[in-house]
Amino acid sequence: MEINISDFEDYKKFLKSWLECQPNKGYGWKAKLSSAARCNAAYLSQVLGGAAHLNLEQADSIGQRMSLSDAEHNYFLLMVHLARAGTPSLRKIFLNQLQSARQEFNHLGKRLKFESQIDELQKINYYSDWAPSAIHVSLFNPKLQRIPDIASYFGLSSKIVRSTLDSLVRGGFAEKRGDRYFAGSVNVHLADGSLFVSQHHRNWRLKALQEIRNTNEGLHFSSTITINPEAVGKAREILTQAIEKIRKVVRESTGEEETYAYGIDFFGLRKSD
Question: What is the pLDDT of residues 138-167, one digit of tens each?
Fold first, then answer.
């Protein structure tokens, strides 16, 4: 089981949940964390189960020992600040900072750690249709690195595939070696404010509609719901975690692979007056 640090405001609850998620229920990890914090294990147990608190130096050392990301580490230290705050006004300050950090941490692009920036012309070509990103991803499959194989797989003409591959090579997304094409290291994610976001989503929603009409395969689900505003954040978090888990499954996938697409939509239907 994986936990998301931004689900917590209490650093003690986070630490206990984190320990529970480690192999053998975290056996041996209390000693490792107390050693990093330069305190004895008994004191760390008092912190986790009582009124004692870590100081900031101890929290910093523990966060490093847990191999937290920079965003997670900063969030962890803010939770310690909040717990140690001695007045309501100081607690309010740290609580506001924690809430801002949660929004920043949960921003999808940063949460999923996408990388690489491409120039505007490359974006125009890459997001002009569903095919460039599909062909780009397919190059990781050794069986889909030649023009005839790619054309047959996606049901595209060799002319379109060749033109698309030429564009991918110019943009650094692919490399050509003989008659084979190989994927580069570029992993693209559009920022929320990008002009190409709507085009990218449109490409794949139209492709999904085409697949629904042409085949009974695949998983397609649409629904209209009513939901308490307080539960919207929870539903959004569930979907975000699902994306993270799918990406983890993809990273760990081995053997013969196929190319798939998935898309998730979750939005309110009320329009402002």
Answer: 998 899 999 999 999 999 999 999 999 998
Rounded distance between C-alpha atoms, residue 30 and residue 82, angstroms: 23
Q: Is the pLDDT of residue 191 over 70?
A: no
How does residue 1 score in pLDDT terms, banded at 50, 70 and 90?
very low
Q: How many CB atoms lie within 10 A of CB 118?
A: 15
Model's pTM, two decimal places?
Answer: 0.55
Contact 160, 128 (CB under 8 A): no
Integer Cα distance of 206 and 3 in angstroms:
34
98 closest CA partner among 17, 15, 18, 9 = 9
For residue 204 the two structure tokens come to 């794949």
User: What confidence score (pLDDT) does residue 115 get?
Assistant: 46
What is the distance, to the nearest Å, from the Cα of residue 210 to the centroid of all Cα atoms in its chain? 27
Task: Quickly list H helices, 112-217.
Answer: 120-126, 130-138, 147-154, 158-170, 197-214
Q: Are 184 and 175 in contact (CB under 8 A)?
A: yes
Residue count of the chain: 273
Identify the H or E element spanning 17.
helix 11-21
Only one residue has tokens 């921003």, namely 107
CA distances from 199 to 169, 172, 203, 204, 246 (A): 22, 21, 6, 9, 23
